[in-house]
Amino acid sequence: MNFIVMELSALTAISPLDGRYGRQTAELRDIFSEFALMRARVTVEVEWLIALSEFNLPELKDLSEEDKLYLRGLVSSFSVTDCQAIKDIEKTTNHDVKAVEYWIKSKMTVNEHLAAASEFVHFGCTSEDINNTSHALMLSSGRQLICSHLQMIIDKLKGFAHEWAGVSMLSRTHGQHASPTTVGKEMANVAARLEFAVQAIEKVKLLAKMNGAVGNYNAHTIAYPDKDWPAFARNVVENRLHLTFNPYTIQIEPHDYMAELFNAITRANTILIDLDRDIWGYISLNYFKQQLKEGEVGSSTMPHKVNPIDFENSEGNLGMADAFFTFLAQKLPISRWQRDLTDSTVLRNLGVAFGYSIVGYTSLERGMNKLRLNEEAIAADLDQSWEVLAEAIQTVMRRYGVPHPYEQLKALTRGKGISPETIHEFVATLDIPEDAKASLQKLTPATYIGLAETLAKEI
To answer: Which parts pass through the membrane (predicted)?
Structure first.
């Protein structure tokens, strides 16, 4: 078979994240691409070197502010051309982190002070000291993006909750008619769940280590035994890279925090899948209509259809994201003895998991913006469901000691279509105070909503 080698574009990309959904995931390229990883590695190497220059090592003079500015400029001005130069070095080294080291050294020939300090680039480090910190920096940015999208969804849900706080709606438990709620309260429920989920995502500490080949500062202490290397490493990780120092590791940081983070994101995504399915169902019940877009087609053969494609797209892509996150959370904390390489190739897929999440969020956001409440259909559904007042009546009967209230209402309503007249006739026979009887006679499915409206407005 002859294959055509095509130039990479949105139309020829293998992954839909870079193809069909390329515009939605474009902002992730600056966080999880090979370019972004290389830039993060340069960041770590530069900050490590600058910190070493301030550590009073006899053979390494403190760099001038101008030299430090130059080194940090390698990060701020890092370009695709620079990244390609590192990749070209890697063709020889066959080692990506070593290629970064050599590239930085090549940039330090601009003056004699930097040139003299060049052998302290990567001093005492194993490649994983650079990689684990780089991945943590990338995840920090990725987490911010995830949380910003989730916050937009929360804000939209809260808006719905307030707008529709008093719109009574039939509940369905087990798919069957149940005590009424309001549309706003149901939106508030999801907003509250998501807020807890976002808090869980935000509180995960992003851990990092810089303690050498097997986590014991072997190389550091043989060269400078009188230096407090754990304190130095902690300072670099926490005060320069703004991560959380992990003092006990093997060659790699064990990635337990990644599992915690990915599980937390998966939890948020699962809540949104639940929302996608519920809104899909409400659209099917005609509780919501979708704003039409000129020229858009719902079906290739049925012209009348307006399909809930945004919610279906969101559900599918969030499912893909959760599949990746779940695998990452299960795989990454496992390493044979002091290190194996299986985590390295897996970590290159961080952007894939985040990418499917972003596609899912943007699809959901787009779908939510199209929703238009159909209050007539919701009210009509409620007006056909007077049997849901059985809970209210039997509860009042319990209060006043009427015998067998549950059983009486079960016989009256279960599996039967109940009219307002049937309810009123039954209430009229009850041996309860007249004011209680009058209250029940005034009750309708639309007014039997408890504190739903208040709760929705308070979110």
So the answer is: none
Q: Where are the domains of the chain?
A: 22-123, 140-211+242-292+306-375, 385-449
The whole-angstrom separation of Cα 48 and Cα 232 is 10
Closest CA to 107 of 131, 139, 72, 151: 72
Helix (H, G, I), strand (E, B) or coil at 180: strand
- pLDDT tens-digit series, residues 79-110: 999 999 999 999 999 999 999 999 999 999 99
Residue 147 belongs to what H/E stretch? helix 127-163
Could you give the CA distance from residue 350 to residue 356 in angstroms, rounded to a whole number? 10
Helix boundaries (H) for 285-374: 309-331, 342-347, 350-370
Environment class of 69 (CB within 10 Å of its CB; exposed 0-12, middle 13-18, buried 19+): exposed
Task: State how far the alpha carbon of 331 is from the alpha carbons of 146, 322, 328, 349, 456, in Å.
Answer: 22, 14, 5, 12, 41
Of the candidates 299, 404, 419, 424, the residue annotated as catalytic is: 299
Does the domain made of 22-123 have the CATH classification 1.10.275.10? yes
Please identify, in words, the CATH class of the domain defined by 140-211+242-292+306-375.
Answer: mainly alpha
Q: What is the mean pLDDT of the chain?
A: 95
CA–CA separation, 285 vs 175, rounded Å? 12
pLDDT at 359 over 50: yes
* Residue 357 falls in the annotated catalytic set: no
- Please state the rounded mean pLDDT for residues 282-303: 75
| 299 has catalytic annotation | yes
Distance, CA of 39 to CA of 18 (rounded, Å): 21
CA distances (Å), origin 335, targets 106, 250, 256, 339, 340: 34, 9, 11, 6, 6
What number of other Cβ atoms are within 10 A of residue 6's Cβ?
Answer: 9
Place of tokens 């290739």: 300
* Residues 299, 422: Cα–Cα separation, whole Å: 44
Tokens 């390229």 belong to which residue?
A: 29
Verdict on whether the full-model pTM lies above 0.70? yes
Structure tokens at 201: 């995502």
Place of tokens 């309503």: 413
- Which tokens in the block code for residue 245? 């120092």
The domain 385-449 is placed in CATH, from the list 3.30.365.10, 1.10.40.30, 3.40.50.300, 1.10.630.10, at 1.10.40.30
Q: Looking at residue 225, what is its pLDDT?
A: 98
**419: three-class secondary structure by DSSP:** coil
Q: Are 167 and 243 in contact (CB under 8 A)?
A: no
- 109's CB contacts (< 8 A; 6+ apart) are 115, 118
